[in-house]
Each structure stands twice: as structure tokens, then as C-alpha cells.
Amino acid sequence: MDKNSEWNEGIERERKEKDSFFAVHGQSPIPPGERAKFGGLEYYPPNADYRFELELHEHGDKKLLKIEDTGGNMRDFLRWGEFRFKVGAEECTLQAYKIDPREERLFIPFKDVTSGKETYGAGRYIDLELERDCTPEGRWILDFNKAYNPWCAYSKNYVCPFVPPENWLKMAIRAGEKKLKGEEP
After folding, report:
1. Element (H or E) spanning 118, and its range?
2. What pLDDT, in 10s, does the model give residues 142-165?
3. Which among 153, 141, 147, 150 is positioned nearest to 175, based on CA atoms?
4. Could you give the C-alpha distances from 180 to 116, 154, 157, 168, in angstroms and in order?
5. For residues 17 and 9, what is the distance between their CA atoms, to the nearest angstrom?
6. What is the largest CA-CA distance in the chain?
7. Are 104 and 130 in contact (CB under 8 A)?
8. Element (H or E) spanning 23, and its range?
9. Is the Cα dihedral 164, 79, 51, 23 positive or negative?
């Protein structure tokens, strides 16, 4: 089995597991009364062109950024570093944030030109875990095929941070989760 088909199967497996969790688990963000008719999330087909192995350009001065959430609260995030990459011919930069400097997880919220049309209007997220998403050479695997909607996309019971304007991309990222069927644009 080649590396690309292993990767593709892994993406498909993760999506099936998430759909199953959303359909039946007590902690699913899908409201209990809607779970019976939940037919799964919508996704773009896996596309390896949206998977990158990148150096994290860590900021020397990790500034505190206040990001508003959907409940009107201000949350503190540290601007930890940035990823630089190309989508087609387009140069892109995304900031990676941490809530606590001791955690090993990076939070990458982003919006792109599909936001509000094909994907959730408030943007999507990618979480990177050091153990899972870092290569032995120390490069991070930024895979937009794993981009997901925040839970506030599925229920008003959740509040989620908005995407800061510095992470609004000027092109379409047709990878990862799409809008939930029937969601208003």
C-alpha cells in the first residue's frame, strides 16, 4: 500500500469515527433531538495538495492576542508562531496560537473564500498535537483535510473563538469539513 492511499484511508476512517460520535455520543454537539436524522457531516474529498509539512516560525516575542468568542467574551491567546506555505501560486501565512505556553498543542483558526458559502461562515479550525502532528525532523503536518467546524456551528449551547483577521486567507481551501446540510449561508 502506498503512502498516499494509507493517508487517504486514515482521513476517511477519522471522518467515519467523527460521524459516529456526532450521531450517538452523549457529548455530541448535535442537539439530542436532531441526532436521529443526522446523516453525517459533509466533507471535501481528501486532497493531498492541502497537506503540508512545515517549519513553525516561532515568534521571539509571543504577544497576547484577545479574541472574541461567539458569546461576546474575550479570550486570551498567545501568538506562538506562524506557518508559511503556498496554495497554488499564492503565498500564505497562518498564525498558530496557544492558550497556555506549557501546552504542546497549536490552535490554527482560519477563514478562506469558501467561508459562508461552502463552509461554516465563522471559519474552521485545525488543532496540531506535538506527538501526532510533528515529523521526526521537527516539521509540523498542517493538513487542511482535517479542518473542522467549531462546535458552535452545530449548537447554540457552545461558544467558540472567532477567527482573527490575520488568519483570513484570500483563496479557497477546498479541504476538510463543509457546512452542515441545511445550514444557512
Report:
1. none
2. 999 999 999 999 988 899 999 999
3. 147
4. 11, 8, 16, 21
5. 12
6. 49
7. yes
8. helix 3-24
9. negative
